[in-house]
Design brief:
heterodimer; A: alpha/beta; 10 helices; B: alpha/beta; 8-stranded mixed β-sheet; 11 helices; 8 strands; 48% helix; 14% strand; elongated; binds guanosine-5'-triphosphate; binds magnesium ion
Chain lengths: 277, 287
């Protein structure tokens, strides 16, 4: 039996509320509170001590989640972006493309959302803004075919990275999830390996459904990483804690605004500090 | 399921007579877990369960044969009451009536505009779809495509939304449009909407200002509702209920901000709009 400190009722309530308000969820909150109590065993317990123990616990829970993005050696690299409707995929694709271009790379955008109204138009406007080429077919085309042609073009024209934007879909829709698996297989066929990054784009305002999203998208395409959007404003994105506990996927980037420059690498310390303030 | 969990909590007591205080608390704790896991705001959970606890004691739940079912029934009743109220309808006041859709980024406003337009046509109205989102890339194209699909008029109000809407309201009389459905820009979470929005709502005397929220939204839902206070929101639409998000926001906002939920979005097509059912929502939230 590991000793643990006894937090008084007020401190306990306050600690729980900080975590619940940040969307950490009831299960992970209970785990974190226990861990804080263990850390404070035999110490004087004031709010500063609790805050420090809390930050330490969260940093530990997010161990392995910070991984700086490095573009793979083999060209072209393929980055595939997936996620539920409205999570911020298209905007994030454009932001990452801009970042890669700033670093001297030559990105090609692939508009594989052939379903939603004006999805192709949206990516084309962003591509134009960035001076980057967008590979697209007509609305209603098969996403696999667009990806196939995008890759073929990238390989022959010497692009060094391909970013694939896909249609939003709720993770419980099996045929749509299978379609994603098919897109991954198209890449495998052309490249001889799956997309170098299969990135789940998660909205920071999502609550406990985030875990279901991560689990089911992981089943569909084998996720390699996450991007968390809309961390500007009041959202704290605590729902990534349950995801970290179950899947331990790295978070490559965070979106902090609607502009194409509003993208930052994920930093555990900063994220934890913002979550617990 | 919650019924099973509560059943287990109370199972040991079958035939034992009265419930102890500790056992009532254990039951309420299970319900608290379920509501928090369903994204109901933690303050709403606290207030709701305090009320249920009071009622449970007053109703002498301890003497019932199925305390789990009784406790759940009390919770469900509290929830349904908070979400139900009188069946709230669209006001559709004014000539033309102006209905404005507001909400955080990506919640489904533009798609819902199309759904409402189709719904209003079936109710005998003549809606026009208006894009008042000057910021999002291809926002006009997206709404114009929906309008075309539905065979309805579309007009942009993106160069100067307030002035454009005034012009469009006059044009509505000539064109015999009797409702203007106005799509607006998404805002960052918890932040006030675009500057022109409160003025646009005031100038057009919009009788319906609908806050469009994603059913998967977590604890931010209340803050989002409050951020739109300056817009005079009249009702809520909860989208993406065709997924497995429990939708706790459907309880938090009516209970805390008195905002009724008018519709549920259940898919990406124009026909995927349903009236909101409080009883069904209560069951969904309770899991
Ligand atoms: N405030 C804020 N808004 C964001 C951020 N990322 C995306 N958005 C906004 O969120 C909305 C949805 O973004 P999209 O990129 O269209 O999302 P999507 O996942 O591609 O949507 P679908 O393709 O329809 O599933 C837009 O209004 C974006 O401007 C962010 O980091 N912060
Ligand atoms: N499955 C499902 N998807 C929906 C629903 N409502 C909207 N969507 C999808 O959610 C995504 C975002 O919808 P939009 O209508 O572009 O959202 P928005 O609020 O206008 O976004 P911004 O203008 O960028 O703030 C799109 O992929 C829609 O097809 C719904 O009820 N169910
Ligand atoms: Mg998109
Ligand atoms: Mg929109």
């Amino acid at each position: 039996f590991k000793g643990k400190a006894r937090l008084d009722q007020d401190a306990l309530l306050r600690l729980e509320e900080v975590l619940l308000a940040a969307d950490v969820g009831p299960e992970a909150t209970a785990f974190i509170v226990r861990s804080v109590e263990e850390k404070l065993a035999g110490q004087a317990v004031d709010w500063n001590a609790i805050q420090a123990a809390l930050e330490e616990t969260l940093v530990q829970a997010l161990n392995g989640v910070e991984r700086p993005f490095v573009l793979p050696r083999e060209k072209p690299a393929v980055l595939m972006f997936v996620g539920v409707n409205g999570s911020g995929k298209t905007t994030t694709v454009a932001k990452v493309a801009r970042l890669l271009r700033e670093e001297g790379h030559n990105p090609l955008l692939v508009a594989a959302d052939t379903f939603r109204a004006a999805a192709i138009d949206q990516l084309e406007v962003l591509g134009q803004e960035l001076g980057l080429k967008v590979m697209a077919h007509q609305p209603g085309a098969d996403p696999g075919a667009v990806v196939h042609d995008g890759l073929a073009h990238a390989r022959s024209a010497g692009y060094d990275v391909v970013l694939v934007d896909t249609a939003g879909r709720l993770q419980t829709k099996r045929p749509l999830m299978e379609e994603l698996g098919k897109v991954r297989r198209v890449v495998e066929k052309v490249q001889g390996r799956p997309p170098d990054e299969r990135i789940l784009v998660i909205d920071a305002t999502v609550g406990q459904n985030a875990l279901s999203q991560a689990q089911l998208f992981h089943e569909a395409v084998g996720l390699t990483s996450l991007a968390v959007t809309k961390l500007d404003g009041t959202a704290r994105g605590g729902a990534v804690i349950p995801i970290a506990r179950h899947l331990n996927l790295p978070i490559l980037w965070v979106g902090v605004g609607e502009g194409l420059e509003d993208l930052e690498p994920f930093r555990t310390q900063e994220f934890v500090r913002a979550l617990t303030r | 399921s919650l019924t099973d969990k509560l059943g287990q909590v109370f199972a040991r007591l079958r035939g034992k007579g009265t419930l102890t205080e500790a056992e009532i608390q254990a039951g309420l704790r299970e319900i608290r877990q379920a509501l928090l896991a369903a994204d109901v705001h933690y303050q709403v959970v606290r207030d709701l369960l305090a009320k249920v606890e009071e009622q449970a004691r007053a109703q002498k739940i301890v003497q019932s044969l199925t305390p789990a079912q009784q406790l759940l029934a009390l919770v469900r009743q509290e929830m349904t009451q908070a979400m139900g109220g009188e069946a709230t309808k669209l006001k559709l006041s004014g000539k033309p009536a102006v209905l404005v859709l507001v909400g955080p980024a990506g919640s489904g406003k533009t798609t819902t505009a199309g759904k409402l337009a189709r719904h209003l046509v079936r109710k005998g109205r003549k809606p026009a779809l208006i894009c008042a989102d000057p910021f999002r890339p291809a926002a006009e194209e997206q709404l114009a495509l929906l309008a075309k699909k539905l065979g309805l008029p579309f007009a942009p109000a993106t160069s100067d939304p307030v002035r454009d809407l005034t012009t469009l309201a006059q044009r509505a009389a000539r064109e015999l449009w009797d409702v203007l459905i106005v799509d607006t820009p998404g805002s960052p979470p918890g932040e006030s909407p675009a500057d022109f929005l409160p003025e646009l709502i005031q100038t057009t005397k919009a009788g319906d200002v609908l806050l469009v929220l994603d059913a998967m939204v977590g604890q931010e839902a209340l803050g989002m509702g409050q951020a739109f206070a300056g817009c005079g929101v009249t009702g809520l639409i909860l989208t993406k209920l065709d997924g497995d998000a429990r939708g706790g926001a459907a309880l938090s906002l009516p209970r805390r901000l008195g905002l009724p939920v008018l519709f549920a979005g259940t898919g990406e097509k124009p026909e995927d709009l349903e009236p909101f059912h409080p009883q069904r929502m209560a069951d969904r939230i309770l899991g």
